Amino acid sequence: MIWKSLDDFIAMGGYGFYVWGSYLVTAVIIMAEILMLRARRRAVEQARQAQIILSEQTKHETTT
Amino acid sequence: MKLNWFKYAAPVTFYPLAGKLIPWFALAAAGLTVAGLYLSFFVAPTDFQQGESYRIIFIHVPAAWMSMFLYLVMAGWAAAGLIFNTRLSSMMASALAPTGAMFTFIALWTGALWGKPTWGAWWVWDARLTSELILLFLYMGFLALHAAIDDPRRADRASAVLALVGVVNVPIIYFSVKWWNTLHQGASVSMTMAPKMAATMLLGMLIMALACWMYSIAVSLARVRCIILEREQQAEWIANLGEPT
To answer: Of A3, A26, A40, B27, which has the highest C-beta tally within 10 A?
Structure first.
């Protein structure tokens, strides 16, 4: 085992700021990309839903 | 049986295929990340020169590889879109750009955090760092140009030309450490020489790189599905997809 304790692990031999600064920011950016993609998906699905409703309304209007 | 290679070049057939593939790539990305992080932090030994600071390598190098590789793939799709006029190719190029830009930023960011303790500087204007920064600007230029043109097909063509011109930067990044005197260390992995690092370090790095691959595939497939829906709202097959899920 490389690490003697949790504190030892967090300290990263004195390089904790640099190592965790790298990993944390990477994790945050990746999460942000996934969330933004999810929001984009939701927006396009909503637009599609609106279009389906709209096209059904116009169909109804032309038949009556 | 005759294979139809262009079958999945049509959004109508590609869209459901991509949807089926995404969970598998996402799962592979998650699994490989866990395995890669375990190797990176609990198996790989402390570096005799750099101490623990070297552990940044496990994201820095895979991110830098992805930043260059994704650019080549993006430019390849953009070229295919220009040559064959297939709209899905251009959509793939657009879907890859944000992820490529993200990996470029991660490579630069982790590089700065690695440079400070090892070189004593967050940033130096040397060939490797500068050309990687130019790569980020190329990605951003591609995205900005695409967003600036209203007609998506014209936007595809204009940004494809930009992407293709920018390809020249990728070999410059890769060989910069050989061509110029730089502060940056040489290539971490070489095809012709025996690995310079411990086997477990190398394995951790390769598994993290593989995780980045799987992640990139999953995310760009998910993004290209959004782009297909956004651009082909009027298409009959999209109307026939039924209720959004």
So the answer is: A26
